[in-house]
Amino acid sequence: MPIIFSDEDLMYLDKEQDNQLRSIRQAIDTMKTKGDASFCKKCSHIMQYFNVGNAKLFQCGFCGNRIAEMVNSEGLIPSAK
Predict the structure, then answer these.
(1) Which of 57, 81, 47, 37 is nearest to 70 (CA)?
(2) Are residues 53 and 63 in the same domain?
(3) Are residues 13 and 29 in the same domain?
(4) CA angle 31, 59, 45 (to 5 degrees)
(5) Cβ count near 56 (within 10 Å)
């Protein structure tokens, strides 16, 4: 027996999904403004990082892409792989 949703049910589900997507977008925007996160150029997922001396090492948890950036007094300088 198939499940039948009414228009009211679908509106409720759409509203819940919109709220979830909005909260995810807000979390990503705050991460971007803080500068805590970088996004992978291969798959666009958020990359994790840690500091080693005067460098930031980024690694994508999804595809494994790695990037190193040197930090100086003016900010980050992207370095080659």
Answers:
(1) 57
(2) yes
(3) yes
(4) 50
(5) 17
Task: Compute the distance between CA of residue 9 and CA of residue 19 in angstroms, rounded to an integer.
Answer: 16
Long-range pairs, 51-55, Cβ under 8 A, ≥24: 55/79
The number of beta carbons lying within 10 Å of the beta carbon of residue 63 is: 13
User: What is the domain extent for residue 45?
Assistant: 37-81
- CB within 8 A of 74, min separation 6: which ones? none
What pLDDT score was predicted for residue 76? 55
Q: What is the pLDDT of residues 21-30, one digit of tens each?
A: 889 888 888 8
